[in-house]
Structures are given as structure tokens and as C-alpha cells.
Structure of Protein translocase subunit SecY:
Amino acid sequence: MKKLFTTLGNIWKIEELKERIMFTLLILLVYRFVSHVVLPGVDPTSPALTNNAKSGILGLLDMFAGGSFSRISILALGVMPYISASIVVQLLGIAVPTFQKMQKEGESGRNKLNQITRYLTVAITIVQSIGYVKTQVPVEAILPIMGTTMFYIVSVIVLTAGTLFVMWLGEKITDKGIGNGTSLIIMVGIIARLPNALAQEVTARVGSASEGGGPVALVLEIVALLAVVMFTVLIVQGVRKVPVQYAKKIVGNRQFGGVRQYIPLKVNAAGVMPIIFAQALMFIPGALTSFVPSFQGSWLMQFSNPVSLAYSLTFAFLIIAFTFFYTAITVNPTQMSDDMKKNGGFIPGIKPGFATSSFIDDVISKITFPGAVFLAIIAILPSIAVKFGIKQEFAQFFGGTSLLILVGVVLDTLQQIESYLLMRHYDGLMKTGRITGRTGVPAASSNAVL
């Protein structure tokens, strides 16, 4: 404990790190304040907004927006249009040669892709904002002083500006703060729901309207939550290290190369994307039963209940399938083999070229399956928690998209903080080893990461 307080004190001794942390906290505070500002022309006291809780895919969007979606806030769409645009550009970089060329152009190529992403974000936001005001804003909540047509026009402009404002805040955090700005904004939105969810669970266990269980059940739930978090950290940080040997080069009196490094192949290379894709498909049966009355009471209803066995098994299968799919399109063994060959590197015992790419592909296939299974288990844990009597709001933190995002963002941020500490010759946050985030792993001894 003394070492922890010493390390925290060292953080505030580094002036640059202290300024970055304070700047990040200030920006996040501004975001949370603005997220409570409702759209112009909306009556926040209207009874139509009192029970405006969302479920399904709308509940997922509301979680990413930190509750702004259900509050009819000017930041209701949050950063989701930007994330959607980023995913589209990323997929285009895999399928379209022009985008592939820009990815290989270095800094100039990245600037072009960022500009395209911003323009695409504006287009997606305009489309989503039109759908939002048409379907999610109750007519009863619109003030009579503003006509419906004028309200729709103003709302689309304000929602688009709100998303661009959030995107700007995220970029400012990335440039002048600590951690990835967009990820931190999503994380803050998720954490903002935790106090209310925990309060509901405490009330259900030990409050005046207790549903049974008492303090013992509450303590067991907290312990189970900590165990799930530790398990998730294990999955996020898990890597398979493939050794790479570099040939020696003698230039004058100096020797270059000749060191052994490794390629860190992540067990969960796809991250949270398989869960998002699988959830999008699992919302289709619910949408069909809502729009087609004849489907109500049919077998499709089993796939509309998140806690049913059929839903959980199908959800897990889709996650496993999408994990293999997303890993296949984002991790390119052939390109890794070519880059290794150009730099004079080789895997000991494996011939360069096709044999190396086949070996890497085989390793990826072997580690992807357990990673996909573990990811599926994490995704269905909230449904299992509900089966054990845990409230729906609190059960969301036992797994799924929210927990993976929280763990990943926290690890990335701690990794950056630890880098500042080690650069100033202070002890890191961990007594042994190094904190690793989603985008990097420590090199063995003094060797660098490939």
C-alpha cells in the first residue's frame, strides 16, 4: 500500500503528466455537463420523457452515449457516428486498393483517411439525427412555441453539431490529455450508469423493498464482479509470442541486428467488434416481432429474450464466427511475413516467405478459437447474472460490451501513465512486469517490439 501511494505521488511530480491528467478530467467534466442539455424545443419535464428508458440496440446506443440518448440531449448520438465511420473506412482499407495505398503512405495517408472519416461522420450523423428526431422524440414533449417542421430542422443541425463537438473533445484528449479520447468518452458514459445500477442492487438486497439475499448476497455479487473483471483482463492482455531472429549486419566497426525479438499475436485480436456485430444481428428477431404482429408468439420470440437459452447459444455462436471473420480481415499473415523478410528477419526453424505466413496463420487460428470462446462467455455473462437474480442494470457490468470497453480503456490509459513514470526513472504502477494495453505488449528484456 505504501508503494502505491508513493507511485501516485510520483505521478504528480511529473509536471507534463499532471497537466495532461488535469486536462483530460476537465474535458470529461465538460462532456458530462453538456450531455444533460436537452434539445431546443423539448420540455424536459414532460411526462412523455419520464419513462423513456431504452432497450435492445437503442439501449446499447444509450449506454455508449452515457444516457444522453434517452434524455433527448444535444449529444444524444454521442461518438457512435464517428465510430461507425471509422469502421467503414477500416473495412474499405481492406477491400479497396485506393484506401490500402493511403494506409501505406505514412503520416500523409493517415491524414487523408482521417479527413475522409470526418466527412463520412457528418453524413452518417445527419442521417441518424433525422431518424432520431422522427422516432425517439415524443411529440408531446415538443414545446408548442416551436413548430414541428422547425423543430426537426433545428434538431438535425444541433445533433450534428453535438456529435462533431464530442469528436473534437475526443481529439483534444488524445492530443493534449492522457489516453484515447474517444474511448475515454465512451468509458465515462458507461461508468456514469454504475452508481445508479449499484444503488438499485443494494436496495433490492438490503433496502426497505428488499427482494431477499441480504448483505451476504450483495458481497458475493461484488466478489463475482471482481472475478469477472480479472478474467476479462486476462483475455484482453493474453498474447502468443512468436520469436523472430534478425540477421547480423556489419557496417564499419559496428554491428546491427542479430537480436531476437517477437511478434505479439493477441488471443483476442478482434476486440469488442464481434460482440457489436453479433448484437446487431440478434436485434433482428425482436424488430421483426415488433413490426409484424403475426410473428408474435412464434419461435422468433425465443430470440427476442436476452436471458433465454436459445438467445444465449445463438449469440455465443455468432460471436465465435465473427471473431474468426474479423481476425481474418484485420490480421494479414502474408503482409507480416513480407515485412519480416524485407527487414532481414525470420522465425527460427521456418523458411521465409510462404512457410512463414502459413506458420503465422496456423498460430493465429489456434489462439483465436479459445479467445473466441472466452469472448462468448464474457458476452453471455450478463444473462447468466440475471438468471441468478441480479438486477438488469447491474448485470450489464458483469460482461458484454461495457466490461470489455472499460477494461481495455483502463489498461490503455494506465499503460501511458506507466510509460511517463518509467521515462522519468520512477517505478511503474505494477511491482513486477509491465501494464499492457490493447495496442502494445512489453518486449522481452531489452529487445524492442516488432
In short: The two ends are 35 Å apart (CA to CA). Residues 354-387 form the longest helix (34 residues). The beta strands are 239-246, 248-251, 254-257, 260-266, 345-346.
